[in-house]
Amino acid sequence: MDFLTLAKQRCSVRKYKKEAVEKEKLEKLLEAARVAPTAANAQSQRILVINSSEGLEKLSKGVNFHGAPLALIVCGDHSSVFVRPFDKKDMVSVDATIVADHIVLEAEDLGLSSCWLTYFDPEVIRAEFHIPEQLEPVAIIALGYADTEKASPDRHEKARKALDEIVFYGTF
Fold this sequence. Notes:
With 172 residues, the chain is of the alpha+beta class. It has one domain (3-166): NADH Oxidase (3-Layer(aba) Sandwich), CATH 3.40.109.10. 34% of the residues lie in helices and 17% in strands. It is built from seven helices and four strands; from the N terminus they run ααβαβαβαβαα. The protein has helices at residues 3-9, 23-34, 53-59, 92-109, 122-128, 156-159, 163-166; strands at 45-50, 70-77, 113-117, 135-144. A four-stranded antiparallel beta sheet has the order 1-2-4-3, sandwiched between helices. The protein is globular.
């Protein structure tokens, strides 16, 4: 399918079947994350795979992952990241966000559903999974097979601002 069709089809899902995500599909999700562009190709992303019942139980202490059978905690490594020299901006959040976007789009292409989660307690997540100090959890991606009807790809006509509200040419 072409990219815009895929992008419009993808939506956040908050109800999942208990069915596990196949190992082959997980590997494709992780490969999509691996090849994602990062600032200065520093590849600061670190991904923690949570797919055991014990891991999901621990995850539930810090985030509502909507009962998904798989979650990926996307972190950035502050010790291995490009820092813009002009203003010293660390690109961990940028890198992790690009990686997370690759994951959710690959999931959609594989027939999986996802929910990008940023409403989580980072200290609980850090403690439960022994995340080292230099790693920052940026997003948690819930993944699995939807157990609900997905939003219409046509929703963007009403749910998104028009291009003339968000795009400027030459100057603001």
